[in-house]
Amino acid sequence: MSITSPAGFRAAATAAGLKSTGAPDLALVVNDGPSYASASVFTTNRCKANPVLWSEEVVKDGTVRAVVLNSGGANCYTGPEGFQTTHAVAERVAERIGVGAIDVVVCSTGLIGLTNDRQQLLDGVDVVSAALAAGPEAGAAAAEAIMTTDSVSKQVLVEGPGWSIGGMAKGAGMLAPQLATMLVVLTTDAVVSAEDCDTALRAATRVSFDRLDSDGCMSTNDTVTLMASGASGITPSLDDFTEALQRACVDLAMQLLADAEGADHEIAITVLNAASEEDAVEAARSIARSNLFKAAIFGKDPNWGRVLASLGTTQAAFDPADLDVAMNGVWVCRNSTPHEPPDKVVFSGREVTVTVDLKAGDARATVWTNDLTHAYVHENSAYSS
Amino acid sequence: MSITSPAGFRAAATAAGLKSTGAPDLALVVNDGPSYASASVFTTNRCKANPVLWSEEVVKDGTVRAVVLNSGGANCYTGPEGFQTTHAVAERVAERIGVGAIDVVVCSTGLIGLTNDRQQLLDGVDVVSAALAAGPEAGAAAAEAIMTTDSVSKQVLVEGPGWSIGGMAKGAGMLAPQLATMLVVLTTDAVVSAEDCDTALRAATRVSFDRLDSDGCMSTNDTVTLMASGASGITPSLDDFTEALQRACVDLAMQLLADAEGADHEIAITVLNAASEEDAVEAARSIARSNLFKAAIFGKDPNWGRVLASLGTTQAAFDPADLDVAMNGVWVCRNSTPHEPPDKVVFSGREVTVTVDLKAGDARATVWTNDLTHAYVHENSAYSS
């Protein structure tokens, strides 16, 4: 179950020396065709890293032949020299595998503001280009090489009739709307046009990665790239493909959530009966961003007052005097007043559900977040040291 | 230096029994005139506590005779019964001091979703009404009675020629834009019309309390009330009065910031050369709300990459490739690339300054926040237990 499970893809990984630990830090994924259809989505942060600035140009024509990814340095805020490093890496990959550099997506992750050693990267590209292999092991090695503070690598495989979608992801914090410090590569051997790749990818990320909100921070490097080799010779309907891609993205998103830095709980916040899906997302996100609410969950405190206080900061349609809130299935608040005793809420496992009924329509949405813990503070205060 | 330092004001405090510790939890401040001009600002949270719903009506005519404040329970999300409690408290104050209930502002703070004991409050009102006294000690007692998780009481006195402004504040967390879990009473013996009170108060809170952003959470109970007794007989110019009121508000705001729950550092984020003051505030606030940035400061890590990543989420006018950032006076980033070595930044005291140059105009603003610490998480996970 990896990016090399679908037919038509090879991958490889190596330790190029960017990580001081000597762990693998460079991965290459190549689409051998016969089709090279592709689509990508990037961070919406205006301060974008050099690899994002480069890759945005690469993906414009809907054709991608390879994705090269490094951990150990984000190549962000490193100026023109950093951009030249990204460009040089793409050129080297192109040369080694016999394609044009303008079809090579580059992704980087790690600390920002640090210049990556260009020669280490180029030497690493030589190594991975020579080591490319098909089969699940190669993909698994690539998934490991893109880890930073991740405690486990993240992979997925969703199978359709005669075709499949493979995926890998990197991310363990800074998960926020419109993607965040998250690199995802998705591969499929289904026959899908670039246009359909784009439609399906946008639909799938909208209800998966875009609804993760671990700490409200938005990264500078996030990239999700889908490549379709067409090697199965089978053309699924766009609906079937989109549904499968969405399952793959939600699966990876839940793996990212479960590995968020220092979290004790995964929290699913579902807003019901909103006037619109937009309202439901805004309301749910306001709760996911409340440090007070998130600290309360860490303390296993079903503090529904903090839920209502968060809702009150939004523009979503509702009557402030008529809100219902449940935690782990117990309706602790009805009509904006206390209802079931909070001590009936049982916090036994890692998973916590918060349900809010806005009574303003029939739309709904779920946003996922984590609790705010001592370990979160510790890991993020020590990250660069 | 208290709310009873200006002429024309009396105050008292008592332990009404709302706090299980037996500490003082009820305060009354009375304006004895000859003028009763007043202005107030309230939380902009749509989910407002009962005392706010009541007091918003009280202040509409620009006349306030008294403010009664309790800690030990916010009377928020307690439904119609809670509103009746607020009303009953105002009625009892009015009866005891011989005014109309519609001139009595009520403020409450403490846990939300808990019903306050009405009889305890009414008995307490009887006690404080009988104990009203002029002079600084009475005001100091009132300032203590409104504390919740505050470690110290907050008071201020600003003197003009022949007149003065006194103030007290309560708040130790949840400090956010448009006020948050913050109760402030300001008194003056200057002769100021209700209209000028309003103008001066809005100008003063805009650049003080509204620019505190301790944890991005917005409370349901925040109230700032200014009462002008006119007892000095002196009428300052509106400019002079506004300037003095602003000094009082900034002083109290800095006291609130320094007492934020569990913080190790007070952080002043100044954005220079913005296209507008609005842009400067938006840019500064985005940094103040970044958990990653705030955790980095806790770890004494001058992580300017997280500053740029926060700026990138705003709509403020700037060139993402041309931003400068200084920490404690060291320009660690110029033109969005590394400049001075980060290890030149010295974090010796509690105060940290972050300066951002947007190079887009000549407006500026400062927003204050705290670092994100283990103690913040601990205190806010345990608050209701």
From TrEMBL, chains A, B:
User: What is the name attached to this protein's record?
Assistant: Arginine biosynthesis bifunctional protein ArgJ
Write out the annotated subcellular location. Cytoplasm
Assembly mode: Heterotetramer of two alpha and two beta chains.
Q: Which PANTHER family match?
A: ARGININE BIOSYNTHESIS BIFUNCTIONAL PROTEIN ARGJ, ARGININE BIOSYNTHESIS BIFUNCTIONAL PROTEIN ARGJ, MITOCHONDRIAL
The main location class comes to cytoplasm
Which gene underlies this protein? argJ
Does Cytoplasm show up as a keyword for this record? yes
SUPFAM superfamilies reported for this sequence: DmpA/ArgJ-like
Note the coiled coil stretches, chain numbering: none
State the active site.
T181 (nucleophile)
Stated EC number for the protein is 2.3.1.35, 2.3.1.1
Source superkingdom: Bacteria
Q: What class of enzyme is it?
A: transferase
Q: Which InterPro entries match?
A: Arg_biosynth_ArgJ (IPR002813), ArgJ-like_dom_sf (IPR016117), ArgJ_beta_C (IPR042195)
What is the native source organism of this protein? Nocardioides massiliensis
The UniProt catalytic activity note for this protein reads: N(2)-acetyl-L-ornithine + L-glutamate = N-acetyl-L-glutamate + L-ornithine; L-glutamate + acetyl-CoA = N-acetyl-L-glutamate + CoA + H(+)
What the protein does comes down to: Catalyzes two activities which are involved in the cyclic version of arginine biosynthesis: the synthesis of N-acetylglutamate from glutamate and acetyl-CoA as the acetyl donor, and of ornithine by transacetylation between N(2)-acetylornithine and glutamate.
**Where does the record place the site Involved in the stabilization of negative charge on the oxyanion by the formation of the oxyanion hole?**
T109, G110
- Specify the pathway: Amino-acid biosynthesis; L-arginine biosynthesis; N(2)-acetyl-L-ornithine from L-glutamate: step 1/4; Amino-acid biosynthesis; L-arginine biosynthesis; L-ornithine and N-acetyl-L-glutamate from L-glutamate and N(2)-acetyl-L-ornithine (cyclic): step 1/1
For molecular function, the Gene Ontology terms on record are: L-glutamate N-acetyltransferase activity, acting on acetyl-L-ornithine as donor
Family, per entry: Belongs to the ArgJ family.
Q: Which UniProt keywords apply?
A: Acyltransferase, Amino-acid biosynthesis, Arginine biosynthesis, Autocatalytic cleavage, Cytoplasm, Multifunctional enzyme, Transferase
Instruction: Give the residues the record marks as binding substrate.
Output: T148, K170, T181, E261, N380, S385
